[in-house]
Amino acid sequence: MAPTNWGTYLVTQASISEGQSTLEIVRGAIDGGVDAVQLREKGESARSRYELGLELRELTAEAGVDLLVNDRVDIAQAIDADGVHVGQSDLPVPVARELLGPEAVVGCSTSTVAEARRAEADGADYLGVGSVYGTTSKDVPEAEDGIGLERIAEIAETVSIPVVGIGGITADNAGPVAEAGAVGVAVISEITAADDPAAATADLVETVETAKDLEHRE
Ligand SMILES: Cc1ncc(COP(=O)(O)OP(=O)(O)O)c(N)n1
Ligand SMILES: Cc1nc(C(=O)O)sc1CCOP(=O)(O)O
Ligand SMILES: [Mg+2]
């Protein structure tokens, strides 16, 4: 599936779960209809991300769900992921593309119009734009303040590649992100910290689909 159709995108970080493993959470997310999963697990060793990545690859491939790896092109290659997600302090987009090839999905984090233009020119396939509402899930002070929906709209109008909103997104506030022009939403806590990840995912899927339907009718 292409990023254009990623309505709901799970970014994994089991350290903020209520005792559930990443595999359990991803299984639930798949049952709930998630479109893409990103292996993040900041703080874990390369070996443990690699081993978890192999298991996630099996699960996601069976379900037809895209699998991305955060930051690490080498792990993406080693587990045969669909692609990689890089931020402003990670490997540059053209380098990730060169290493992974033309078929891989390369996503890039941006929070300003200038960064978005650059990522698109560099060949990114989609943008992760945030932090939309502000979050403590990403351990940097900048993420605590939201960039707001107007910035999402401005970036979505500027670039031709899909924009995915990230940061502080829940089923209650995901609709306006899609209405602002994002193809979908990426979340950690809304699914990961839920008692029932499948139900939390299904709520998000429905909210985003409804908002996109309304947006297209206008
Ligand atoms: C979909 C998506 N968008 C943004 C990010 C953040 O990437 P980055 O800024 O590199 O921060 P880390 O996640 O690496 O801490 C993301 N991971 N996914
Ligand atoms: C990994 C990440 N990147 C962000 C960015 O703004 O680039 S915000 C974020 C954390 C998203 O977690 P939650 O859904 O719990 O807010
Ligand atoms: Mg990164």
TrEMBL record:
It is an enzyme of class 2 (transferase). Signal peptide: none annotated. This is Thiamine-phosphate synthase. Residues 9-191 form the Thiamine phosphate synthase/TenI domain. Mg(2+) binds at residues 71, 90. Its cofactor is Mg(2+). Pathway: Cofactor biosynthesis; thiamine diphosphate biosynthesis; thiamine phosphate from 4-amino-2-methyl-5-diphosphomethylpyrimidine and 4-methyl-5-(2-phosphoethyl)-thiazole: step 1/1. 2-[(2R,5Z)-2-carboxy-4-methylthiazol-5(2H)-ylidene]ethyl phosphate binds at residues 135-137, 168, 188-189. It catalyses: 4-methyl-5-(2-phosphooxyethyl)-thiazole + 4-amino-2-methyl-5-(diphosphooxymethyl)pyrimidine + H(+) = thiamine phosphate + diphosphate; 2-[(2R,5Z)-2-carboxy-4-methylthiazol-5(2H)-ylidene]ethyl phosphate + 4-amino-2-methyl-5-(diphosphooxymethyl)pyrimidine + 2 H(+) = thiamine phosphate + CO2 + diphosphate; 2-(2-carboxy-4-methylthiazol-5-yl)ethyl phosphate + 4-amino-2-methyl-5-(diphosphooxymethyl)pyrimidine + 2 H(+) = thiamine phosphate + CO2 + diphosphate. GO terms for molecular function: magnesium ion binding; thiamine-phosphate diphosphorylase activity. Keywords: Magnesium, Metal-binding, Thiamine biosynthesis, Transferase. PANTHER family: THIAMINE-PHOSPHATE PYROPHOSPHORYLASE, THIAMINE-PHOSPHATE SYNTHASE. It comes from Natronococcus amylolyticus DSM 10524. Binds 1 Mg(2+) ion per subunit. Its EC number is 2.5.1.3. GO terms for biological process: thiamine biosynthetic process; thiamine diphosphate biosynthetic process. Pfam families: TMP-TENI. HAMAP family: TMP_synthase. 4-amino-2-methyl-5-(diphosphooxymethyl)pyrimidine binds at residues 38-42, 70, 109, 138. Belongs to the thiamine-phosphate synthase family. Condenses 4-methyl-5-(beta-hydroxyethyl)thiazole monophosphate (THZ-P) and 2-methyl-4-amino-5-hydroxymethyl pyrimidine pyrophosphate (HMP-PP) to form thiamine monophosphate (TMP). Coiled coil: none annotated. GO terms for cellular component: cytoplasm.
